[in-house]
Specification:
Elements (H helix, E strand, L loop, with lengths): L5 E4 L9 H10 L4 E7 L11 H10 L3 E7 L3 H10 L4 E5 L6 H10 L3 E6 L17 E5 L15 H13 L5 E5 L7 H7 L3 E4 L1 H4 L4 H18 L1
Parallel strand pairs: 1-8, 2-3, 3-4, 4-5, 5-6, 6-7, 7-8
Helix pairs in contact: 6-8
The site of zinc ion (ZN) has 6 residues, from strand 2.
């Protein structure tokens, strides 16, 4: 049996002045998760959402909140994001001195845990932690901004991770983030991606149902063939 592919719209590309309507629109369109990009102006050159905003998001949706921490010193903020309603907390490998301790911190807060890697960070740097993770997030653009172009060179990373996860029968899901649309989504799913983050290709379209449908259709097509 093939495992399902989840779609996680990234609210970074939403209209923040009407955030609850924006979230509701993708919820109605069949989104599986909501992806929340947290940026600190230090780990990445952009500033976005903090725990206060997350706690308001928590009040308007019951969807799984996938929180992507693009911040330095993630250990300082993990408790507040957990308290504010995150379901999954993904930190960056490059920002973690001791990933094991961070994973334990997240698990002790009874949240799912993920690690992300920037395009230049090798897969080998996260392999030792795969058995403790719920999610491994492969960045397919340089983190910091929405609407960038997908980097096909990242497909090899997905393939290597998928082989390792299958070989060791791990439960960790491979997630991709950056430049995902109906053209690139199937390429990542073919290599083993099972959570697709999409910002611009969903919130950039007026018709959110059509946007989600077009991504799903592109995946179904390749899954029929394989
Ligand atoms: C980028 C963020 C992404 C971003 C993706 O640093 O992590 O989640 O919102 O946006 P798109 O899908 O437009 O590339
Ligand atoms: Zn993200």
């Amino acid at each position: 049996m093939t495992s399902p592919v989840l779609i996680a719209p990234s609210i970074l590309s939403a209209d923040f002045s009407r955030l609850s309507n924006e979230i509701r629109s993708v919820e109605k369109a069949g989104a599986d998760w909501i992806h929340v990009d947290v940026m600190d102006g230090h780990f990445v050159p952009n500033l976005t959402i903090g725990p206060v905003v997350l706690s308001w998001i928590r009040k308007v949706t019951s969807l799984f909140l996938d929180v992507h921490l693009m911040i330095t010193d993630p250990e300082k903020y993990i408790p507040s994001f957990a308290e504010s309603g995150a379901d999954n907390l993904t930190f960056h490998r490059e920002a973690a001195r001791d990933p094991k301790t961070l994973i334990r911190q997240i698990k002790n807060l009874r949240k799912k845990a993920g690690i992300s890697i920037r395009p230049k960070t090798p897969v080998a740097s996260i392999v030792p932690y795969l058995d403790q993770l719920d999610v491994v997030l492969v960045m397919t653009v340089e983190p910091g901004f929405g609407g960038q172009k997908f980097m096909p060179e990242m497909l090899d990373k997905i393939r290597i991770l998928d082989q390792k996860i299958r070989k060791d029968k791990l439960k960790c899901k491979i997630e991709v983030d950056g430049g995902i649309h109906s053209g690139t989504a199937p390429l990542t799913v073919r290599e083993g991606a099972r959570v697709l983050v999409a910002g611009n290709s969903i919130f950039g379209q007026k018709d959110r149902s059509a946007a989600l449908k077009s991504i799903r259709k592109s995946i179904d097509k390749i899954r029929e063939i394989s």
